[in-house]
Each structure stands twice: as C-alpha cells, then as structure tokens.
Amino acid sequence: MMSRRGAAIAMLMAMIAAATSFTSFAEAQAPETPTPRVATLRSVHLRQGESLAIALHPAPDPIEVRAAPGADLEVCPAGNHGEPPEADDSSWPRWFGFLSCIPLDPNGSARLPSALGGLFHLAFLVRAPASAAVTIHRLTISYAPVDAYFEVLPPPIPPGTQAPLVSITPTASRTIGTQAYASVLGDEPLVRSLVRQGGRRLGTTTARPPGGEARAYGPVRLDQPVRIETTNRGAVSVTVRIQITWE
Predict the structure, then answer these.
(1) What mean pLDDT comes out for the span 169-191?
(2) Surface-to-core class of residue 46, CB atoms within 10 Å of its CB (0-12 exposed, 13-18 middle, 19+ buried)
(3) Sheet holding 52-58, edge to edge
(4) Left (φ > 0), alpha (ψ -120 to 50) or beta: where does 92 sit?
(5) What three-state secondary structure class fits 71?
(6) DSSP track, 39-70
(7) pLDDT value for 149
(8) Residue partners of 104: CB distance under 8 A and separation at least 6
(9) Residue 81: pLDDT band by 50, 70, 90 thresholds?
C-alpha cells in the first residue's frame, strides 16, 4: 500500500503533468500574431473634390497612415466601396469611435482605431482638407491583416495615365495577385497592370495568389519590394478598384 507521502508525491506529479498538458494545448490553440503588412503608394494626384480610398481586412491592431512631415491631409471613415463620410454610409461601426476625419499630426501620421474583433471589411480615405487638390508623393499604410485582402480605390484614371504606384513586400508567398476591377459591375476596364521587382518584370503564373481571385504574378523573391503600375489604356476615364493580395 502506498504511504501518505508517496500518495502526495504522486498527486503532485499528476498535477504538474496536467498543467503542462494544458499549457501545451493552450499554446497550440493560441492564434498566431499576424505579420505586420506595409503598402506604400507614390504619385497620388488628387484633383479638387477627389480622394484616395483603401479597403482592407485588418486585425485588431490600429492602422497607421503616414505621409511626409507637415503634410496637410486627413484620414476619414469611408463606405465599403470608398464612399466619402458625407455619404453617411461608413464601414466603421459607430462604437469603434471613428466618426469623423482625423488630420495627420505634424509628423505626417495618423493612427486609426483598433478593429477590435478583426472580423470587419473596413475602408477609409485620404484627402486634403476641404477636398482641395493635392499631390501626395509618398503614402504608407501599415497594419496587421487577418487575410491577404487589400484594395486601392483611386479617383478616376484619365486615358493614358497611371493610378498611384503601389509597392508591397511579400514575406511568405512567392506569388502575388493584382487586378483592376471596374467599380460598376459588368464593365471591363481597359486597364493594364505591370508588376516589377528589382527592375525585373514579373509575368503571370498559373499558381494561385494568396487569397482573392486577382490575376497571379510570380515567382517573386521574398523580402524584396514589388512595384505595381496600373495604367488606363482606354479612350475614356475609368473608375476602378485595384485588388492586391500578398503574404
């Protein structure tokens, strides 16, 4: 028969084993921290009354928007398709607290509220106060994603001109996706996407991009910037949403 001391030791060992097993299970079930993602836009030309919108699926971490120090810009809540705040159709639930435009601080940055549960399709726009004309030479969006979805919604692109240039850096997948879709369903815009990495033009590939159904390009080199140029090859101005997916 086991002594009282032996029984106590056996019970202690069982408790340690149970605690270790629970810790291992909890670690296995804990969600992975999303890898921070950065998209950089260049040559953003906004005419009077225009704005640039971004749509994404962010994790609960705040979204950071950065431009040059002293940039006279504001970041505003937008509808799911980039509608301005005046449309009163915000993609941000009121309890997020993002109810009106936030001006960039003197350092040229703004932080948007946390997306809390990370289960929302959110959109925001960047513009000059009073919707004045402005050229933004460099605009950086930093956030933690819940998936690969990311869209740029520029103002109408005149014939023969480019949308803002977009640079992203894949860290896990050797395929990226990008495609310009018409804002009006059924229309097929005459828009061309050119994808480069380190001066090398990337061709399309049959490998699926991470997330979404955008046209796939690759193979890409990891941890090196990829530049996406979108040009209107048609005879009339077009309004598009440029989907970019990467990991």
Answers:
(1) 83
(2) buried
(3) 102-103, 74-77, 122-127, 52-58, 145-153, 240-245, 176-182, 216-217
(4) beta
(5) coil
(6) EEEEEEEE-TT--EEEEEEE-SSPEEEE-STT
(7) 87
(8) 65, 67, 71, 72, 73, 74, 75, 110
(9) confident
Closest alpha carbon to 39 in 157, 174, 180, 138? 138
d(C-alpha 48, C-alpha 129), whole Å: 10
Listed residue (79, 134, 139) closest to 110, CA to CA: 139
- In the predicted structure, residue 69 carries a pLDDT above the cut 90: yes
Rg (CA), the chain: 23
Predicted confidence (pLDDT) per residue in 204-216, tens digit: 999 888 876 789 9
| φ and ψ of 142, to 5 deg | -120, 130
Mind listing the pLDDT tens digit for each residue in 3-25? Answer: 544 544 444 444 444 444 433 43
Residue 153 and residue 1: Cα distance in Å, rounded? 77
Q: pLDDT > 90: what percent of the chain? A: 60
Instruction: Return the higher-pLDDT residue of 146 and 27.
Output: 146
pLDDT of residue 118: 64
The two structure tokens encoding residue 205: 């590939």
> What is the C-alpha separation between 18 and 40, in angstroms, rounded?
48
Q: Is the peptide bond before 219 cis (omega within 30 degrees of 0)?
A: yes
DSSP string, 8-33: HHHHHHHHHHHHHHHHHHHHHHSPPP
